Amino acid sequence: MKITVQPDTPENRELAENVHPSDWLNPVPDGRYNLVVVGAGTAGLICAAGAAGLGAKVALIERNLMGGDCLNVGCVPSKGVLRAARALHDARHGSGFGITGGDLLGFDFGRAMERMRRLRADISHHDSARRFRDELGVDVFIGQGSFSGPDAIKVGDATLHFKKAAVCSGARASALPIPGLAEAGYLTNETLFSLTRLPGRMAVIGAGPIGCEMAQSFARFGSSVSLIELGSHILGREDGDAAGILHKVFQREGIDLQLGVNIVGVETDGGVKILHLERDGKKLSVTVDEILVSVGRAPNLDGLGLEKAGISFDRSGVTVNETLQTSNPNVYAAGDICFPYKFTHTADALARILITNALFMGRQKTSALTIPWCTYTDPEIAHVGIYEQDAAQKGVEVTTLTVPLAEIDRAVLDGETEGFARVHLKKGTDKILGATIVARHAGEMINEFSLAITSGAGLSAIGKTIHPYPTQAEVVKRLADAHNRTRLTPFVKKLFSAWLKWQRG
After folding, report:
1. % of the chain surpassing 70 pLDDT
2. What is the 3 state secondary structure string of 20-47?
3. Which of 152, 438, 458, 495 minimizes the number of CB atoms within 10 Å of its CB?
4. What is the pTM (predicted TM-score) of this model?
């Protein structure tokens, strides 16, 4: 079956031919597979490529687009859009650097989206059906995979028998039961990147990471954006100070923040969409041209036939233990279908655990993972480990240290002083329990903390590591310096002074 990616452009036709070839012929199954993988998103691709590279006989099944959400409607297109928005923002706000005429700069939304589609098509070769078949030796089946028994999966007329299987079918955008919303029509991440014209007015429902990223991007493009959130804060799960910085940035950039509101209903009037809201008993409305819904993810369970294989699941996805094994001991799962942290890098990590445990009798556990994440707004907010409130709930005493970016020379020179680096240490030690960075490139900077937590290195080890000057990442070393100063108690300082006075004599 031919799949058309909208809009129907040369770039999207190239994408479709890579990740869902129109002339694809499924292979004929030949004997039992070491591993059959259902779903060719990040987790499925890593499972298939990794297992095949180690000598396993592997089949990979995908009913829609190989590459999954990340390539087609997630990380890749969204970051292409974010980069265009950041370039436009920098060009229009460069007066402090001596750049004139910023307000007169034009912007072609269609060209920005064309660039994104072109780059996505280029990247798609890595995830293509032909690459997995011809270069990696994987049997690629295009179609709906459904379990027909505890050790078999059907794809069309073919039955694939397996020793082990991996369910990696991912998740999709959640819907909202708001009266009138479906009739009015709305966008999700699955349709947003098909736009060819910039909406004059846009409502974004949900102030989580995706909602915040897209709200800021489209506001920078020139849309009048209202960001609508049931909670009282944007990024409600993040460090409050970090979210507070982004809140002020959004206000400065003209985003209409509608926080702490209920959406009573949606209606259409002459081609526009009107959202009726309620806050503290008061009614208000927002009129827009497009609505983007960004309120979480729902697992892709439909059509898998999990019951026939004895695989337990619920509304949150497939049920797995810490080794990613399902209730069927020969079937494992990885990625958004089974894990609360729905990130591409997490799916990658889980797939590697799955290969070890399913094929080589490993006992690796997901509880051992150190998982960082980043919201790619401007500035970015990156985090790893626990938050201060998490430690309090667990009864763990912490020492929290914070260094503002305004104290870092490179941040001052770059004109990017809104932000900070914060670390939570186990009280009385230099053991890192968690860290948050707010900076333009926070996602690139958080890795030092992730490595330290994973390897058991304390903050003192970071302090002993020479960091290039001037860089914004120097803020991490400054945290270590701050920790060292806390160790210089009055008693210790008195001892040092006595020692040095003795040396002078």
Report:
1. 100
2. CCCCCCCCCCCCCEEEEEECCCHHHHHH
3. 495
4. 0.95
